[in-house]
Amino acid sequence: MNLFDMEIIRFILFGTIWVFSSVSFAVFITYKILNKYTNYGDSSPKMDEYSMRGIDMTRMRDNVPASDKYHLFADYGVNPYEGHKHSIPEQLLKDKGE
Amino acid sequence: MAVLCKSCAGRLIFNPSTQKLECAQCGSSYRPEDVEDFNSRLDSRYYDTRVYTCPQCGAEVITSDTEVSTFCVFCGNPAIVFNRIAKEYKPDGIVPFKITKEEAIKNIEKRFLKNPIVPKAVKAKCTPENLRGIYVPYWIINADYTEADFISGKVKKGKRSETEYFSRAGDAKFKNIPIDGSNSLNDDISRKLEPFYLEDAKAFDEDYLNGFYSSASDLDYKDLRNSAAFRCHKLYEDEIVKTVKANDVKVLDSIYWVDIHDDPIYMMMPVWFFTFKYEDKPYTVLVNGQSGKVVGTMPWQKKKIWGIAISAFLIVQLLCLFLTWAVFNHFLGLSQIFAWAIAAILVCSSYFSIQGSTGIKRIMKNLKLTQSEAIFKYVKRRQG
């Protein structure tokens, strides 16, 4: 490989990297400007607004094998509230009407 | 139904700034709870609303006030016709408007001032005629909740990072979660309108509706349970991923159960709707009528945005070319420093690429919500 070929390879390599960097910066700056000037109120309350005690953990296992998923869903796959009776407001019944 | 002034029989309109009913003719004011609703039976679970129809565009005006809608604010037709009296289920409570129409306009305009991106044509549309105050139905629920999640994340092991799996399960008790009671209003938008502060809630009195439009809940219990489960799931999921100490955490699969406590509360929440059309596309920007929070994505001047993006591209390109040239030509004998600068740009660009592209995706999604035809029609059906 002669010196000319090396120069071309170097040019293509750096060119590609710089185009990627420039596009990344351009996309990021465009996002920041759009977010600041056109995107309003893009947030919603977190869990602590609606729950005093947070999550009561009943299972917390790290670094489990992929097959643990089936055990997890076997353990928690049944509706724990099944059979709970509720009084439903009239407005939420399909056959409403006076 | 509309109530009349005791002094002059003029119509009374609820004023959010004074929280009183005010007579447009003589200026007298009354507290809503002191005004007797002649047309409403206290023991009735329903209240009367008046439905008007615009003969020009077909829009329906739903109002409990007899005179508030003397013209169609959607098409401008000055003669809308009374159609029928409809009975609506009486809500348990109401959070009255606190933000006046003028304040809502100011809150939107604040975003426009010195804003080089939003088109002038849109700025000109921010007028009182394009703003409608609508009481949106919500269900306030308490619920027990159980969820199990199978999660993946990348953990550093020496110089490499490996994917690991995590299993999590837990219970939570939720209190006073507002669930939007209208199928037409997108849940993503109604969620962003929050929080609503229930400390300001009053027992429902139809006098608060005077001067505003309203909408009734069209959910059934199954809809409510599904919406509540999904809402709890979103809140729970945001928290559970924090318990995983890894990078690039993803919830691969989850299963969740919700149990809504008895007697969810039916409430009316105040929302200002700013609707306009730009380049033949409808837009709806919302303002929380209690807190003044503005929600929505404005259209932008495409030429300016392209100009900014191309300028940023060219500036970084020039900088990169200079740094490369400086490294290879040992400019000022500082080629080592220039080489570090190149490395820094490369590291930053990966981060900027991910942040920028996910951010723009999110803005485009929000823009689609703001352009939702369904929300535009929702306002139109309630007069606008």
SSE layout and pairings?
The complex is a heterodimer of chains A (98) and B (384).
Chain A: H1 3-37, E1 39-40, E2 56-64, H2 68-76
Chain B: E1 12-15, E2 20-23, E3 29-30, E4 46-53, E5 60-63, E6 81-89, E7 93-94, H1 101-112, H2 120-123, E8 131-157, E9 160-180, H3 187-193, E10 202-203, E11 213-214, H4 221-240, E12 247-260, E13 265-278, E14 281-288, E15 294-297, H5 302-328, H6 335-370, H7 373-381
Parallel strand pairs in B: 7-13, 8-11
Antiparallel strand pairs in B: 1-2, 2-3, 4-5, 4-6, 7-10, 8-9, 8-12, 8-13, 13-14, 14-15
Helix pairs in contact in B: 5-6
Which oligomerization state do the chains in this entry correspond to?
heterodimer
Shape, principal axes of CA atoms of chain A:
elongated
Structure summary, number of beta strands of chain B: 15
Tally of helical segments of chain A:
2
The first-to-last residue Cα distance of chain B is 20 Å
Estimate what percentage of residues of chain A fall within beta strands. 5-15%
**Unreliable stretches of chain A:** none
- SSE ordering of chain B: EEEEEEEHHEEHEEHEEEEHHH
Secondary structure tally: strands of chain A: 2
Which residues of chain B sit in consecutive blocks of at least 5 with pLDDT less than 50? 66-76
Largest sheet of chain A: none
Number of helices of chain B: 7
Report the average pLDDT across residues of chain A: 85
Form type of chain B: globular
The pLDDT mean of chain B sits at 82
Span between N and C termini of chain A? 90 Å
Percentage of residues in helical conformation of chain A:
40-55%
